[in-house]
Each structure stands twice: as structure tokens, then as C-alpha cells.
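input
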Amino acid sequence: MPVPVFSVGEVLTAANMNSVGLWKVGTLTVSNATSGSIDNVFTSDFKNYRIMGTFSCSIAINLVMTLRNSSGDVTAANYQYNNAQLSWATTPTWSLSGNLNNTNFPTVARNDGSNTESSFWCDVFGPQTATRTGVYADTNDEIIRRMFNGIYKANTQMIGFTLSATTAFTGTFDVYGYRK
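output
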């Protein structure tokens, strides 16, 4: 399918707009801070979402994702995840981790702390419905490749998320809704 091109002032029909695959719904910018939150990006307009961004830091960090509802961060022990990581600093090495009852998604992304940018994408499945929310993420930096998946097990309607770390980081994370 060709990419649609629109002109300034053009009247757009539903057919025009339905041909767009991803629709940008928000941007989270974090500047030398330990966390940033964004709300009202998960709505009934879309069922599934993609978060894409880059981030950097001066000390190695794991980026933590906490889902948010209308009351703020949801920290009940209902986060279940597994994580596979490939490190190639010297010899390629795989490591695996997981948890059935965590209070967030603790290792959704990684940066080695060399002040270079890590690329990050994360798909979020059904967060705005009062059902389970699924997450799949992937990160690359100079020495680590991390693949993460998880589920928030309780039936909770989410509206956004917080990204945090134990030390300051800088990044921009765009949030897109997948066309239904």
C-alpha cells in the first residue's frame, strides 16, 4: 500500500485517514531526570499501541515501565514478565530472568551508560480496556540486546505509563496508536 501524501488545506475523508497505519498520540520527553510520565495516550480510539524512542545516560541503567490508571502509577504486584538479554561486550552471553508477581516491568529497556543512545520500541496490547495488558519490548545499545515481554494480570483500565531508572537519563519516546 502506498504511503498517503496530504497537502496543506486538503479536506481529508475517512478513507484518507483509514489508510494511515500508526497515529501519533503523544510524546514523553525526559531530560536528565530519573523518571517521566505521560497520561491520556491510551484511549478508546485505538486498541494497541507502539512506543518508540531513544535514550542515553552516563551510568548503565535498566529502564523500568509502570503502567498508569486515572489515579497514577499502578504498583500492585500483578506484573508478570520474562526477559532475554544477549551481551556481546567480550564473548556473546545469554541471560534470562522473570517474575510472576512484580510491582512494575523492571527491565523493559537497557543502556550501557556510555553516553550513546539506545534505541527502544515497545508494543502495548489493550491497555485502555478493563482487561489484562500485554507488553513486548526490544532494546539495542552498543553491547546489549534485550527482548522483554510481560503482562499486567489484573483487569485494570490504563491511561498511560511512567518510565524510570535509578539514575538520570535523557530520552524522547513517541507513542502511536495502531490503526484498528
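quick obs: Residues 14-18 form the longest helix (5 residues).
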